[in-house]
Design brief:
Layout (H helix, E strand, L loop, with lengths): L12 E3 L2 E6 L3 H21 L3 H13 L23 E2 L20 H13 L1 E2 L7 H8 L5 H10 L25 H9 E2 L6 E2 L9 E8 L3 E8 L2 E9 L3 E6 L6 E6 L4 E3 L3
Parallel strand pairs: 3-4
Antiparallel strand pairs: 1-2, 5-6, 7-8, 8-9, 9-12, 10-11
Helix pairs in contact: 1-2, 4-5, 4-6, 5-6
Amino acid sequence: PTNATGRVILGPSYSPEHRGFGIDNCPCDIAYARFSFEAAIAAAGILSQDADLVARFQRQLTQLPQYPVTPEPEPMVTDVEGGAPLNYNIAVPVLPVFPAGLVTVFSSEEEQALFRRTVERVQWNGYNSSIIMPVARARLSFPDSAEYMKAEFLKRSRPNGTITLRAGDRCGHFTEQFAAAGAIAELLLQSVGDIIRVFPAWPQEKDAKFENLRAQGGFLVSAEQKDGQVANLQIVSTAGGKLQLLSPWTGQIVERETVSGEHMEIQP
């Protein structure tokens, strides 16, 4: 079914781990429908297949609903059309940022502003969003990303080095907690949308160095930040193809074609 503006009504559905079955236009559904269409279009383009299906998917992308928002002057995303925000277990309104990866620092200013407000204001109960929330802040380059992540992880840390579900609880170790290393890597390197960013959420005043973190496109990236500046940046192309890099010196996106095995030292 469609609404008065011709956009699809996605439902009946369910807000993951909240409310009951039968809701419409959950951000999780909207984000992953868009993700699936865009992935299928990209795959068909690589394989030079299914032109008719691609055209159909492109039309359907334009018909997806907008994210549901609260009715205030500066709205935030909520988890269901017409529903007030909850104290979430899974931070459903944040999922389009992470893990779906559809809202980024390259999104429109309006969309970024909406999801920044959402990330800042969303309430969660301290359980299953301990990876989602820190990475979402890192994806949008919040200045406090590293400190926020550190605080969330430290209060869940146990003497054996593992991270529990919630600080002070003995409810066990859930699979998402083992993504902590990947979350920390998000502070150092991101490549959402195939655009590589180095130290996208690392504090500028802290020196850091990493080697051979893998980016989208099969690129291995090594970089060093010293005295607030990126002092060394090397990239190895393991599969060839287009390299897209947000220059840490100019803020411009640099593009170049690479061949498999090519080793590049990037200079200011």
